[in-house]
Structures are given as structure tokens and as C-alpha cells.
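I had to read the description of the data format several times before I understood it. For illustration, here is how one protein appears when written out as sequence plus C-alpha cells:
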Amino acid sequence: MKRWLGVSIAAAVALAILFAVTAPGAAQAPAAYRAPRLGDKPNLNGIWQALNEANWDLQAHDARAGMVTQKGVYDYEYARVPAAPVVALGAAAGVAASLGVVQGDGQIPYKPEAAVIKQQNGENWIDRDPELKCYLPGTPRAMYMPYPFAIVQGTDKIHMTFAFSNAGRVIHLNKVEGPPDDTYMGHSVGHWENDTLVVEVTNFNGKNWFDRAGNFHSDALKITERFTPIDATHMNYEATMDDAKVFTRPWKMSMIVYRRLEKNLELLDYECAEHVYEKLFKKPGH
């Protein structure tokens, strides 16, 4: 009897403890993440990389057989096959499916005349995409190309170096004059809102694309970026695009970028210009 009573008391105590732990309001919410500091600001130093399909197409898309396709034997959209320039690449020329990174309804709100240009860009990708010619990738495209980039953070400047085409950009945290001319990468001026780095980017030359699908912008583009550390190895990247020449309204993309942690990691240049001389200087018809 005593043994049974002891077991019952122990069980009651255990249940009471369990109820106290699980009762509403009893458990404290986990503390918000606080990034490692560089002075009084989050430390973003490191090598980062996006791991998604945004450089193929910012919008949601199905997998397709080739980077360039054409109609097959059957005249149906789903029966498109790799076009002659890429057919020998087989599966390596395929495009992976993606849920997309455009927020809201997932669609980029083109003006009707701009939507026509976008479609033409996609149909003439090999001839038109600036990436294939090794031009500077532009902002925001440099952030999600399939190559790493480095962040070096100072007190009044943040420098980003990108592997592709030796591209770089400086985010000015102090008052500076704008560039003497428009550029591929734009002019970046930033400030901190708590632990989020907010950057306004202007002064584009309008020669960049957003991706390989032909999504593009004009020289009127203005971007608002937000860099928010989530934990020690993940950062949320948001960019709002405002270009009244091309879009009917501003729109936003959002994605995660990842801190690379390999031992002895360093950023290696992909100086691609030397690989495209023939493409750049080949005469038409040759």
C-alpha cells in the first residue's frame, strides 16, 4: 500500500511539473536572434552565396529541356525540345523548375510594351543576355548568380566583391556624391535600421537583365535592399524594384543567402571576359 501511495505521489508531482511547463503563458518565447557584432552593428563579414534558381528566372517556372528550346514534332508548348545551339549539351543544358522569388502574386508587373520586349529577350537569349558576354552583372542580379561573393564591412563603407566578372560594389554609409555617370552596378547608399542593413541603389545605365529569362529594367530603376541576419549562417535578402518606365508598380523579390563555411575558403575570380572574345567580336555571318 505504501509503495503504491509513493508511486501515486511521484506521478502526481510529475504531472504537476508537466502542466506547469506546458500551460499557456508558462513557457517563455525564444529570444530574438542577435547577430555577432562589429562595433554596435551586425557583423556581415564573410563569403556568401544564394542557392536558388533565380538567375534562370525570377518568376516561378517549370523545368524545361534546354536553355534554348524550339517546337518539336508536335506543335504543343509542352513538346518543345532543345534548340540546335544547345542540343549537344543534353541534360546539362536543362533548366530546373522553381517556385520563384517574386513576392505577392509571383508576377513581374510589366507595362504592355515592356512585356513584349521581355518575351523577345527570352526568345533571343543567346544573343542578348549580358551575362553571356561577361558584362558586369548589375544589382540585384549579382546577389543571386550561382557564384559566391564576399562582404568586407567597415564603419562607413561596406564593400562587396563578386566572383563573376570581377564585379564589385561599395555601399556608402556616409554622405557621398553620386557617380559622374550611370553604371552597371548602380550607386549604393545605406543605413542601419536596428539589425537590418537598408540600401538605396540608383544611377543604373539600363544595360542589365535580372535573369536569363529576359526580365529587364531601364536606367530609371531604383532599388531598396534589406539585408537581415537570421542566424549565424543565413541572411534574408529583399529587394524592391521601382522603375516607372518598365513596370506598372513597384515589386519585390525575397530570398535567403548562405554564409559559406568551408575550411580555408577564399573568393576566387571568375574573369570570364577572356572566354567570350570570339562571341563579342565575331562578325555577323561568320
Observations:
- The mean pLDDT is 88.
- Residues 43-60+103-281 form a domain with the Lipocalin fold (CATH 2.40.128.20).
